[in-house]
Write a structure and sequence with these properties.
- The chain is α/β, with parallel strands linked by helices and about 250 residues long.
- The chain is about 25% helix and about 25% strand.
- It has a single domain, classed as Spore Coat Polysaccharide Biosynthesis Protein SpsA, Chain A, CATH 3.90.550.10.
- The chain starts with 11 loop residues before the first strand and ends with a helix.
Length: about 250
Amino acid sequence: MNHSASSSSITRAMIFAAGLGTRFRPWTDLHPKALAIVNGKSLLQRNIEYLQQYGIRDLVINIHHFGEQIREALSSNNGWGSHITISDETEQVLETGGGLKKARPYLEGAPFLLMNVDILTDLNLSEMIRDHFQHRPLATLAVTDRTTSRYFLFDERQRLCGWRNVKTGEERMARRGTIFPVQKAFSGIHIIDPAIFPLIRAEGKFSIVDLYLDLAASQEIRGYDHSHSRLIDVGRPESAEEAARMFP
């Protein structure tokens, strides 16, 4: 599927930083989770610097919960050396799908990277970007073999074909005919072709997971396994302590 732009590098990314961070209380009673500190640096700074390692310096950051604190941190640190555009969701937090749709004006034109602010990883983005441009799907999703409660399901060609919640037993199949789907844990990092935007029908607040499952029947959405990388979801205060050990 040859979508857009022949260049095989990515220079723009969006960082999701609007979430309420309810699992990260008490910090998030007074601060946005994006500014939670791991070894002297906020999650936001760490991920801005992580993207810079791969030449990605043009960033969109969405804000909602204590958004002014994020604006102030970016302003006082000159974006830690990156060019930052704010996608303001102060009036209503739009979740991952709605947040992506609102940021469309800043992301048109060429494939871009999308990541959650609370993910810390040493995933080699150059390799993931190379994989995306080799296969040219609508989206490439970073996944690993780690244990979780909710999984994306993939067929033998690494194409997204469904979703499963192993706690509740709920399952959604998007592509029929996959006999033995493989379950993988999503890492909260995506490479997306802007051809996705005209395909988004939902309005307001919605999940990007639902969007992918809706599109997977007709579009190629691929998994990229990076189980050999370090990765932590800094979802709770105790995971910040673990992150400090993993990412000195």
